[in-house]
Amino acid sequence: MPRFAFTVEFDGRPFMGWQRQAHGPSVQQTIEDAIAAVTGEAAVIHAAGRTDAGVHGLAMRAHADIAKDIASFRLMEAINARMRPAPVAILACETVADDWHARFSCTGRSYVYRIANRRAPLTFDAGLVWRVVQPLDADAMQAAAQHLVGSHDFTTFRSAHCQAHSPLKTLDRLDVERQGDRIAIHAAARSFLHHQVRSMVGCLAMVGMGRWTANDLRDALEAKDRAALGLNAPPDGLYFVRATYP
Amino acid sequence: MPRFAFTVEFDGRPFMGWQRQAHGPSVQQTIEDAIAAVTGEAAVIHAAGRTDAGVHGLAMRAHADIAKDIASFRLMEAINARMRPAPVAILACETVADDWHARFSCTGRSYVYRIANRRAPLTFDAGLVWRVVQPLDADAMQAAAQHLVGSHDFTTFRSAHCQAHSPLKTLDRLDVERQGDRIAIHAAARSFLHHQVRSMVGCLAMVGMGRWTANDLRDALEAKDRAALGLNAPPDGLYFVRATYP
After folding, report:
1. How would you write chain A as a 3-class SS string?
2. Domain boundaries, chain A
3. ipTM reported for the complex, 2 dp
4. What is B3-96's CATH number?
């Protein structure tokens, strides 16, 4: 049965998250329902990552096995038409090898976390960025962030619901960039723990506000204790950016 | 009575436009109702420009005369708190001279028009950009746009409802910039006719699609006839960017 890979953009605001849930709409269900409408098949899609409620995707990668004889471009167009008006769009679709797996073949994931550092309430971006009213020192955040880069036990930055076998992860990149009143925090790793990016961002915000020093952040990491967490950032500002494959 | 000047950001999607309307919500009414709630006064606000339904504002300038003895910062904070959850925010507020008028003192207005040049449906940006599926040649649009810069009779690019006395306007800038699948068209003038930016953008899109040449655009301008208009772009992508004062 042909395997199709999808690149998916979605606005996470109306969803309970990527994964299908009994109690509310999900990105997975939106796409699977559209595939079923187009093909008559109950295909299951697998994604590179499972995002939480309110988290967004710029180019999530996913795959599904579909028996119907249909060209990838027509499949993409038909799924997109069926998903309206849900804010989910297939940006690209192609056939891949039978052993290519969106989750298990993935060797790199990157996220961006967006902050609006301003006093005024949000208009266009409500639910799409984290508004932080206190002035943030992005240079201090960038310097502190480098303490988290590398291989560490990230227990402090891990949700109690995290299902990973080990809290050991290698963080390849954590960069803080300011443009005007916007701050973007770029994170990349082979994989992340549940809530890891939001927990790291929350603690970087503590540093940016001057409530924590870079050493406080390092101490929190070394505590290997969720109780040492300074702050967990809300889902609003988090975007799954990219999945990479060999 | 002290005169307060406001810098206003608004998401135009839920509004009938800037100006107060009997048949639906407006930005003006949202702000005036908040001022009334804060001050107990039926203040009237005047803006640098009146935007149509669905058009957005990044930094609209407006003013109102308010008798209440209140500092500008506190006034701004109180108005913002009262306007929630409407997507309108006062970004700045200060007292100005009695003869300063947001509309009549304004000597320059600029707009940006945003296009998403892509096949996939919109997610985050639905209602915030114009999606154009056909590939657009931004270089051709930029070259053609220069035919419109300068002093002209813009009758072709003027709505039938335009209330301006004369169709003669001086367009100071019309620049087309592409970044990835996004195209931004920057327009600046002392003032614009009703629908002028959207009409110019629509015709530039005709050029970008290859359906019009730059000469066709020049001919449309010289026709001085609304019937010569190629296309009127939708309000979705239009943003009032800035008002300038001496």
Report:
1. CCEEEEEEEECCCCCCECCCECCECCHHHHHHHHHHHHHCCCCCCEECCCCECCCEEEEEEEEEECCCCCCHHHHHHHHHHHHCCCCEEEEEEEEECCCCCCCCCCCEEEEEEEEECCCCCCCCCCCCCEECCCCCCHHHHHHHHCCCCEEEECHHHCCCCCCCCCCEEEEEEEEEEEECCEEEEEEEECCCCCCHHHHHHHHHHHHHCCCCCHHHHHHHHHHCCHHHCCCCCCHHHEEEEEEECC
2. 3-96, 108-244
3. 0.91
4. 3.30.70.580
